[in-house]
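Annotated sample (chain length 173).
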Amino acid sequence: MSTRLDLSKLSLMDALDLAILIELEAYERYKMFASQLGHTGGYDAGAFFASMAENEAKHGSELAERRKSLFGNAPARLTLDDLYDVEAPEMGAAHRGMSTLDAFEVGLDAEKRAHDFYDMALPGISDPEVIELFTELRDEETEHVEMLQEAMAKLPDSAKKEVEFDVDETPYL
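Output written by the structure step:
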């Protein structure tokens, strides 16, 4: 998890742009995992990653609407090149045959990293609006961690087993 930015100098617009990019990066990674794994039927690892992609897209859209209401169409000064794996799961985290529980653990780790990112950034930020935003985002990540933990606890035993696959019918990872 890293950024190339001096977070202490972020304006509120830049902080919103950063948060949007963090969601976008996670969305793209989850979407890639869902595509790579496909679906074996039911709620499997691929379906979990697809649902995580939807959640990240929704959160990113909400942040984008907020940004637009505050700053109109002002161009962003930040790009995806300014960050790496803040909330996005690690590139090699998905693998053929992974269990739904394994997929949940990948998502849980990503949500914890996002929480830690916002939490560790707070002491170095002086802009009160950015502090408020990052505190809100950190707290949302805490809620996401708790929701995933609750959902994981309810997974049936079958979700904890690796999925058998036919090499000829499984997308290549």
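Annotation: The beta strands are 2-3, 83-84.
Annotation: Helices lie at 12-37, 45-71, 100-121, 128-153.
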